[in-house]
Amino acid sequence: MPAYYLEILILLLGFTMLGIEAFSSNRSRSGIAVLGISGLFVVLLFLIIAVPSSEVPYDYWGIYHVDKWALFYKAIAILTTLLVLVLAKDFSSAFKKYTSQSNEFSGIGEYYCLPIFVCAGLMWMASAKDLITIFVSLELVTIGFYVLVSFMRRNVGSLEAGVKYLVLGALSTGFLVYGIAWIFGVTGHFDLSGIAEALNSGEIEKKPIIFAFALLMVGLGFKVAAVPFHIWVPDVYQGTSMPITAFLSVGSKAAGFIVLLRVIEPFLNSPLTSSSVILILSFLVCVTLFFGNLVAIKQTNIKRLLAYSSIAHAGFLMMALPAMESGFHSKLIGPSPMESISFYLAGYLLMTMLCFLVITIVSSLTDGENIDDLRGLGARSPLLAFAMLVGVASLAGIPLTVGFFGKFLLFNIAIQYAVFSGSWYIVAFAVLGASAGFYYYFKIIRAMYCGGAEQDGDQLALTISTLSRVVIIVLLAGVILCGVFPKLILGFL
Amino acid sequence: MSLLFYIFSGLMLGFGIMVIVCRNPLSSALCLVISFLGLAALFVTLNAYFISIIQILVYTGAVMVLFLFIIMLLDIREEKSKDWNFLAVGGGVVVLFGFVVQLISVLGGYEDGKQKMVPFPEDSSHEDVKMIGAEIFTNYNFHLQVLGVLLLVATIGVVVLSRRQGKEGSENN
């Protein structure tokens, strides 16, 4: 089966769900979520088992290509969307409070459908080979998120998050388009291979192309939540509903990174631009690691904490970017920067989704999103507390979890690169960030196990649906198994 | 031609600034209309007649009139003048200043940017509409399909976010 059918299958699934949503008389709409989850699962199986061929039709030439990276990031997109639908199903009881009092008008059906279309956009981003395709699929994703972020109309926080995301997203899109226009003006190409050729031809000037690259970085930095383009992250994560926070933090970031990797590759490999690009990237890495980790320390709201942790993870991921420089490539021992980043993102998907699943279940019952609301979880629900413990430990990077191996691979690259180029300050910032991480992640663990629940009222029984229980156990096993046998993920790369 | 360029870009930028400065949303919207007209005129000076007409028909004609309708229907009053947040304004000015300085320094030393545009062939074989259509439906067909999905998502979003909320929720309308 050709790989470009996958997006079409996803779109067909979305259209089917919309059609059923429009005509079904069952008001709870949970059937639509189940259809979406199973449909995505089937497409994921197609992707993994049917081993899609990389042939593309004539009109896709030069704009869309399929390689192992594209397939890997497509799989991440599908898996993320699947887990987001599981989260959304658990969240539906809390969701109705914020949209409408009557079931009929809650819009929960659309809430299940829109992530499917966003998923198609994420998958197109993974295959995009020219700037126009990147832009168009990025906009599909962003516009889907504009709607999803402000979905809970009755919640002031959600509306505020929606407006902030809309305004700042439009601003970043403006920078991205301006950058693309500059690149086209300077090199005469939209496709990345043409840009690489033009950069190496020696006929273009340095200043304008660096300016164009900087503009592109503003747009893409916004998507992957790198400091100084991170200002939207905490407010939007806090304001919007839990499943969408998870979707933003995993799906948007993973797709942003594959685009970033593909876009910066020609710039890093050209002698004309590589030194300035490395300078820009090193600066972004340092400030992202610094701000993300240190500001996270004083957060008490768990969603804000995860927002800053998401910024910090972007910093760790970007640490491997300067090492993609062509002169360094042959000297590197161990997995390449691209492999390490992909491994980290796959691990990040598992551990972040695990945390969000637990928080969604707890907060839809207790209605609280502070770290204190997790207090006594260890006694109330050992499974949830253990899942959260493993997820948080993995985010911090404790051995025997997938997060440890991800950080290990990235640090391996950063240290070898520092030996090569002398950029030890990046490693210093990363060590500082990782150790600060231990502190704020352990606040969550301490709240769960050490502090007992304050009143008897807190001892509500936590009911977990069978689907969530299965998903939690699968993710838990994934985090631990991939931490012990990293080959499970690295084998795909 | 050069004089026309300065007139129209001055018009566009001036009214663009007025959009932000005006406190009354109605006059902001009207300033935006004039700014768009200046932009359309700039397209004409570049011989891009089709884009210029589309600019007027779609943005000035349809989008801005819709804006005006919404402003009038919702009866949005003049914004009360707020206290200036000097940190935010200062930050904005610094960013803007840095950006402009950078732009000037890049453009100043950029030899390729000083080339004159190739004169546009004016025979009938180069019809704007035909050429744009041919490009969109052949080379950019894939992007067009993706944009179709994008519009669907936007439509669903608008319907969901603005739908009447049933009897209990009707006080919100």
List keywords for this structure.
heterodimer, A: 493 residues, mainly alpha, 20 helices, B: 173 residues, Four Helix Bundle (Hemerythrin (Met), subunit A), 6 helices, 71% helix, disordered C terminus
Can you walk through the features of this model?
The complex is a heterodimer of chains A (493) and B (173). By secondary structure, chain A is mainly alpha-helical. Chain A has a domain at 286-493. Chain A has 20 helices and no strands. Chain A has helices at residues 5-23, 30-49, 68-99, 108-127, 131-149, 156-187, 192-200, 206-224, 232-239, 242-269, 274-296, 302-318, 326-329, 337-366, 377-380, 382-396, 402-421, 424-449, 466-484, 487-490. In chain A, helix 6 (156-187) packs antiparallel against helix 8, helix 6 crosses helix 9 and helix 14 packs antiparallel against helix 17 (402-421). The longest helix of chain A has 32 residues, at 68-99. Chain A is globular. Chain A starts with a helix and ends with a helix. In chain A, 57% of the residues are buried. The model of chain A has no long low-confidence stretch (mean pLDDT 89). Chain B has 173 residues and is mainly α. Among the domains of chain B are: 1-78, Up-down Bundle (Four Helix Bundle (Hemerythrin (Met), subunit A)); 124-164. Chain B contains six helices and no strands. Chain B has helices at 2-21, 25-45, 49-74, 86-108, 128-137, 141-162. In chain B, helix 2 runs antiparallel to helix 3 (49-74). The relative contact order of chain B is 0.06. Chain A binds chain B through residues 11, 18, 59-60, 63-64, 99-102, 104-105, 107, 110, 113-114, 117-118, 120-121, 124, 132-133, 136-137, 139-140, 143-144, 146-147, 150-151, 153-154, 185-186, 204-205, 207-208, 211, and chain B through 102-103, 105-106, 109-113, 138, 140-143, 146-147, 149-150, 152-154, 156-157, 159-161, 163-169, 172.
